[in-house]
């Protein structure tokens, strides 16, 4: 079991990095190599992406990965870097709210000090879990971490915008209602992927009584623009993994159809990667 005192110190350090207007920027990783590269690039913390991690393990994203398999991967990532790690645990890898406790204990055993837990209800009878049902899951996560003596940062993800739930004119109010319920249940921050419009983001910052996390992609406001709006955390989800896999496809197609190798230009040097992964040059 990971030393809880050391883990709590790291959790408190991670918590302190969430500052409105001075956002924590997280280039999401999905395996040891990507985590080492992200940390080496200067990231203050490493966030996993459930999509990238699932794809790396040969499974589609969307609550299809098992708890043990997912958190074994998180443990490898956490052991590979010297910065705090926060784990995307999808909806908690548990059907019943009470079973989120086992997931949180496994997260802590893996060495992670934060979690994203989403309200998307894959396989449910609605796109999102009811507010109270999701709040119960967050409360279990909070209580479990507190009982373990770790100030785990619980980032409550709200998928109203990402999934286009409800009428557009009602979406902001519905998101703020969910945010209030999740914060009251013990969440530390609110993550609203899909919302990048400056007017919407500004309204979310004003209406959420806690740090706001947004997900960026090409065409979204820059880090400095999000900072000016009061955002406290910026991540990119599976975006880097998608770009990496797109390169694999381009390179493979070029090699197999044209017989050329231009897509390989600009790759990291063999010796640099070997050194970064601890195998010498």
TrEMBL record:
Source species, domain of life: Bacteria
A GO MF label: lyase activity
Keyword Lyase: yes
UniProt keyword Flavoprotein, yes or no: no
InterPro entries for the chain: ICL/PEPM, Pyrv/PenolPyrv_kinase-like_dom, Pyrv_kinase-like_dom_sf
Keywords for the protein's UniProt record, in alphabetical order: Lyase
Gene3D superfamilies assigned: 6.10.250.2750, Phosphoenolpyruvate-binding domains
Name of the protein in question: Isocitrate lyase/phosphoenolpyruvate mutase family protein
Organism: Streptomyces aureus
């Amino acid at each position: 079991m990971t030393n809880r005192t050391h883990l709590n110190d790291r959790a408190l350090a991670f918590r302190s990095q969430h500052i409105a207007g001075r956002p924590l920027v997280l280039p999401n990783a999905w395996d040891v190599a990507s985590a080492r590269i992200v940390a080496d690039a200067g990231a203050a913390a490493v966030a996993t992406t459930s999509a990238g991690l699932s794809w790396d393990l040969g499974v589609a994203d969307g609550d299809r990965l098992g708890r043990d398999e997912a958190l074994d991967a998180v443990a490898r990532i956490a052991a590979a870097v010297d910065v705090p790690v926060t784990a995307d645990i999808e909806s908690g890898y548990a059907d019943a709210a009470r079973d989120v406790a086992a997931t949180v204990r496994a997260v802590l055993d893996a060495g992670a000090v934060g979690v994203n837990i989403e309200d998307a209800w894959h396989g449910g009878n609605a796109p999102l879990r009811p507010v109270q049902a999701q709040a119960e899951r967050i409360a279990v996560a909070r209580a479990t971490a507190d009982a373990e003596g770790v100030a785990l940062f619980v980032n409550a993800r709200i998928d109203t915008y990402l999934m286009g739930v409800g009428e557009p004119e009602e979406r902001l109010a519905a998101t703020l209602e969910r945010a209030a319920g999740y914060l009251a249940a013990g969440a530390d921050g609110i993550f609203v992927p899909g919302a990048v419009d400056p007017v919407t983001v500004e309204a979310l910052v004003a209406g959420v009584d806690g740090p706001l996390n947004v997900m960026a992609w090409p065409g979204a406001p820059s880090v400095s623009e999000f900072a000016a709006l009061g955002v406290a955390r910026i991540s990119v989800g599976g975006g880097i993994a998608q770009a990496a896999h797109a390169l694999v496809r381009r390179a493979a197609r070029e090699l197999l159809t044209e017989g050329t190798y231009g897509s390989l230009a600009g790759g990291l040097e063999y010796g640099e990667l070997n050194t970064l992964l601890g195998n010498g040059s």
